[in-house]
Design a protein that fits this description.
The protein is α+β, with helices and mostly antiparallel strands. 64% of the residues lie in helices and 12% in strands. The protein has a four-stranded mixed beta sheet with strand order 1-4-3-2, with helices on one face. Strand 3 (249-258), helix 9 (264-279) and strand 4 form a beta-alpha-beta unit. Helix 4 (86-112) packs antiparallel against helix 7 (183-211).
Length: 301
């Protein structure tokens, strides 16, 4: 048996920790301002955006903590893969926070239907504009790492939803000022809540795909198996498994049955190169078996 390690590519979340840190400071500072303004103005749209921004603060804080935990060496001897999955659990927390905020906004909005509500549109416009600027700055920071790290992507989607929430606040303020009816404040708040829920479900599917050890997005199990079978000296391939440990870290295992005259070293080198160069899998555990080996038949699952 052998295992292959490609050239060290670094930890995706760790490389973008600074983006999370700066975004966290921006969002946390503005959250206090928006919460006070929401309570003072009586705007549900502004309060819903403040609640979503609170979710941003928690999510970004958890993401920061996760990137720190993920890069710590294991001293217990029980975490053979280290603590890289901490980032995935932080992404799951982002999903739960987004769903919680969405549920609160929708329920509160439905309860407001038919009520006479007064809102301060001037405060809504000012705070909504400031919130939009803060969110755009955080989005620009997080965008650079959102394609490499699921953890950063979770934070990015949180801030993206909040950015649209700030736009919603501006639209609600304009409509209330134009029509004199506070019902638009409730309508926009409900729209924000539904949008946040949809984004949470999309991210949640990605998180559970990692936790369920599904074949990573962009990889084809049959294609990987066929490429391994085409390696010189390989007669058959079975027990091929592909999964994601954390963002940017795909893992593979496979059993390679060799021809009688094949060199195990050559087979391992060829299979390693195929996985790394064609499929981007830098960490693979490969078991090389002679053609008369029957041990795998004893495995019942």
């Amino acid at each position: 048996m052998g295992h292959s390690h490609g050239p060290p590519v670094g930890h995706a979340g760790g490389r973008h920790r600074w983006r999370l840190a700066v975004s966290f400071c921006l969002i946390a500072a503005f959250f206090v301002v928006e919460l006070v303004a929401a309570l003072a103005s009586g705007s549900l749209a502004l309060l819903s955006d403040a609640g979503h921004m609170a979710a941003d603060v928690v999510t970004l804080g958890a993401a920061l903590a996760a990137t720190r935990i993920a890069t710590r060496p294991d001293r217990s001897g029980r975490r053979s893969y280290g603590s890289y999955r901490a980032e995935v659990f932080a992404s799951l927390l982002a999903v739960l926070m987004m769903l919680g905020v969405a549920a609160y906004v929708v329920v509160t909005g439905l309860q407001r239907i038919g009520e006479q509500v007064q809102v301060d549109t001037g405060t809504m416009l000012l705070v909504g504009l400031l919130g939009l600027l803060v969110n755009l700055a955080a989005l620009a920071l997080l965008h650079g790492g959102s394609r490499e790290s699921l953890n950063v992507k979770g934070a990015y989607l949180e801030v993206l939803a909040d950015t649209l929430g700030s736009v919603g606040v501006l639209v609600a303020a304009w409509l209330v000022g134009l029509t004199g009816s506070a019902v638009w404040d409730t309508v926009v708040a409900l729209a924000i809540g539904v949008f946040v829920a949809v984004r949470a479900v999309v991210l949640g599917r990605e998180v559970f795909a990692v936790l369920g050890q599904h074949v990573p997005e962009g990889l084809d199990l049959d294609a990987v198996t066929a490429d391994l079978a085409a390696v010189r000296g390989v007669r058959d391939v079975h027990d091929v498994h592909l999964w994601t440990l954390t963002s940017g870290m795909n893992v593979a295992t496979a059993h390679l049955v060799t021809e009688d005259v094949a060199s195990s070293h050559a087979v391992l080198d060829g299979a390693r190169d195929v996985l790394r160069d064609r499929h981007g899998i830098a960490h693979a555990t490969l078991q090389v078996e002679p053609r008369d080996h029957e041990g795998c038949a004893d495995v019942g699952w």
